[in-house]
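Incident log, structure service

09:12 report received: a user says their structure output differs between two submissions of the same chain.
09:20 pulled the input from the user's history:
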Amino acid sequence: MNNMEDFNLDKILASENEGGEAEFFPIISNEDQTSLDNFNFPDLLPILPLRNMVLFPGVVMPINVGRDKSMHLIKEAYKNDKIIGTVAQIDPNIEEPKKEDLNRHGVVASIMKILEMPDNSTTVIIQGKKHFAVKEFLSEEPYFTAYVTGQNEQMPNEDQSEEFEALVGSIKDLSMKVIKLSPNIPSEAVFAIKNIDNPFFLINFICSNSELKVGAKQSLLEEPNVFERSIKLLELLSKEIQMLELKDDIQKKVKSELDTQQREFLLNQQIKTIQNELGGNPADKEIHELKEKAKNKKWGKEVAKMFEKETDKLHRLNPATGEYSVQMNYLETLLDLPWNEFSKDRFDMKLATKVLDRDHFGLEKVKDRILEHLAVLKLKGDLKSPILCLYGPPGVGKTSLGKSVAEALGRKYVRMSLGGLHDEAEIRGHRKTYIGAMPGRIIQNMKKAGSANPVFILDEIDKVTKNMHSDPESALLEVLDPEQNNAFHDNYLDIDFDLSKVMFIATANTVGAISPPLRDRMEMIDVSGYIVEEKIEIAKRHLIPKQLKNHGVKLTAVKFPKKTIEKIVVGYTRESGVRELDKRFAQASRRIAKRIAFDEEFDIEIKPEHLEELLGKTIYNKELYDGNEFAGVVTGLAWTAVGGDILYIETSLSQGKGKLTITGNLGDVMKESIVIALEILKSRAAKFGLSTEVFDKWNVHVHVPEGAIPKDGPSAGITMTTSLASAFTQRKVKSSVAMTGEITLRGKVLPVGGIREKILAAKRANLKEIILSEQNQKDIENIKPEYVKGLKFHYVKTIDEVLEIALLKQKVENAIDIK
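09:34 re-ran on a clean worker, output below:
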């Protein structure tokens, strides 16, 4: 028994003895509280775990025993002194609890009777004696045993007697109100409460047998002060009554609503009869129209069977009910979907190339991959569509490329933005049983496309968010897996839909934000951004004509020479894409339109010197080579999110104790590169005519200018080594030379990334020679010849080769005497 719903004086606390006569047990101990407080019991007790119940001192309680451990414990104890310890489980759902699953407070109990019930179960009647605390569990087999210590109950003092009496009266009244409101508690429980005179036993009886949760009962047991226990019990009973009254109100309202629905149902049946008499039912006409549409669908047998079943269900429903409209929406969704309806692919390779080149300059890798797919499709006739992921900085044309691909292939185009998506149901939909349920956005977009093989853009796939309740990324795994998406399961449709012919193109800014399983299912294509030369072409072909047209300016009314466009790209924008550049041409077009509208005279050809009038002062300064007059200053090459750039590594020496200072907002990897560079120089000191003591006499300060900009990465390793070597030897660095490469402690030069961007930055800065790792030669060969024309490349394996090329024999003016 765990609460009052099990309480029944006749059935539980009475049994037949061996002579066939009824044997009755009291529901409360006949002893007084003093006897219970003075009750003696051994320090080591067998412990019986209780599920869904808590025994209190003085309370008699029947329990059903089912576990083998518990049966063994009861029989052993019954043969001996009949004394056991009872402790409530923390989680009642655990079938075989360990000592960690048991509370540390319980009640010593005496076994009064073991009853074998007619259904072969065993019921044991026990009586609570004294509250105890577990000091230590001794064993778990064959049953739990523990060392325990008794806990005395603290009765109210004289000052609290009147208040305590009022508390007990309130608890008794609330308990009887609970019995009246609760349908689960028999009315006999009222007599039990009325007939318990001892307030201590009354409180314990209500605590043990009320409908409170086990955790709440356990907290009441662990409260040794009876007065405080009474206050807590009163609060819990008050909450229980509020819940029961709320349930009662809801049940009354539901009954009233059901009566209204029954009345409406009868009226609707009468309307239906009248409509049939007048010559037809609108609902039947709707169902007939649905079946006529279904005849033209190309779906498989399974879908056709499902449609028939759901249509028959609709026919049986009352049109006035909410379920009818839900069922109608479901059938209309099935009909609107493009089951095996495909748009015909256009296999004109030249036209596809022309469309892709017309809309996007550059992006050669992506274009080649699309054309490869089209070529295989043309030869083979059937091919699972690739799942591409274009990743790169904003504004490089990843999303707009999808439209061009759709046009080149002759397919329908749909786009789904995943930015901020945090609910799995957005992908898979809700089950149609929910009110307001709808398919997921994948199926909705397929319905919108009207074709089973569209080009489907999954925009901003790296912005999908997940939380503890939902994981949309996991739902996308099925969509983007070519082995699974031929049977995509939407919760609303509740039937598989084939997505294998869909060409999915995902876009992302940051690859690291995409989960590895999802990344593994996609073909990753780097769209790293445009170089200055490519931006100039994009401006000439796309941006300038578009903005002039948007602002009502004729194409012949103004001209932007290449030098002017280059100055806008370099001086007014700093980005990987062309969005900011587009805004600058829009600004220039507005100023030109204003001048035309006011009949002002202006040069048709916009020269670089005119840009200040149109766009204001130059925002960004182009980094140019400074020369080689200073020792310790070396030009390096850097990759940034907006393209390549040059950076200077500066080293200065001052007399001191060999302290190394690093400034310039550098990351950990870059700082480590400086330490490695210094160690390499120390190991080669003799080669440069330096004594090892010189490094202990001079403080070294390495600085990278533009300290507000964070910098990191290993690619400046050889630049730092050259800078330190130049500073300690006071030798000049070769003029117009730049370098990039990672360095190891052995002096080996390793390859680095971003070579294309770095080389073009060097060319813009008027540098003539580039030193880089031998393993980066393949990257240079992939760059268009016109971009590397006029540059000389030195491919090196070790730092010794770098220093041989970069350092001149000549010393700088006013050289420091390093000794």
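09:41 both user submissions now match this output. Likely a transient worker issue. Closing.
09:42 reviewer note: The radius of gyration is 42 Å. The chain has 28 helices and 26 strands.
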